[in-house]
Design a protein that fits this description.
Length: 207
């Protein structure tokens, strides 16, 4: 559109490019001034608009927890791919470095690490659908205390989780399980991965 001085405004393609470059490279908005000739406030506003449209267009399909049909599809996919019936996905935590953490908060997010980090708990399926993501709050964080605060098992505790039926070694199970590493507690819904003893490379990696 034309502004008050009859100069052409920024086209939609230029605004989308600014938002995507911020997401792709993690650069500050003023880093795009020379290339895209766009002000800081305009770049930030376009980035927020990009977020809103992504949620509006894809939220109902991707940004949600799996329903009964999705769970059956995930179980079938993992059984065909890995040979593990009843596996819903892989659960793990990772530390993301918070480079721009405020100075006043650094002490809360640096315990046990050299730099401020935020813990992300996520569940990913074989097709890389991350349908659960939870960021732990401040203070000392690891896989265990983040798990105790995350809403991952709210549907199970509330009795609204879909029924799952599969048989393994002649035993009928009604709850699915997640692949985890050794730090997680001994819960029936967790199956901890283990190295193949016949593979010397994996045995060496474990050691």
């Amino acid at each position: 559109r034309d502004d008050a001085s009859r100069r052409k405004g920024l086209p939609p393609l230029q605004k989308c490019t600014a938002a995507i470059r911020q997401l792709a490279y993690g650069v500050p908005v003023d880093n795009l001034d020379e290339y895209l000739r766009m002000g800081e406030s305009t770049s930030i506003k376009r980035l927020f608009n990009f977020y809103e449209y992504v949620v509006e267009l894809f939220g109902d399909r991707y940004l949600r927890r799996p329903d009964a049909n999705d769970i059956q599809r995930l179980l079938q996919m993992h059984e065909e791919r890995h040979g593990f019936p009843g596996m819903l996905g892989s659960l793990d935590c990772m530390h993301w470095e918070w480079k721009n953490c405020p100075v006043a908060w650094k002490g809360q997010f640096t315990r046990g690490h050299g730099s401020p980090t935020i813990v992300l708990e996520a569940v990913a399926s074989q097709n890389l659908w991350i349908w659960h993501a939870f960021f732990g709050v401040a203070s000392s964080r690891n896989d265990i205390n983040v798990l105790y605060e995350s809403p991952l098992f709210n549907t199970v505790l509330q009795g609204t989780a879909p029924d799952i039926n599969f048989t393994m070694n002649g035993t009928l199970y009604t709850k699915c399980y997640y692949f985890t590493d050794g730090i997680y507690p001994e819960w029936a819904t967790f199956v901890k991965v283990f190295p193949c003893p016949k593979d010397p490379k994996r045995r060496l990696f474990k050691e």
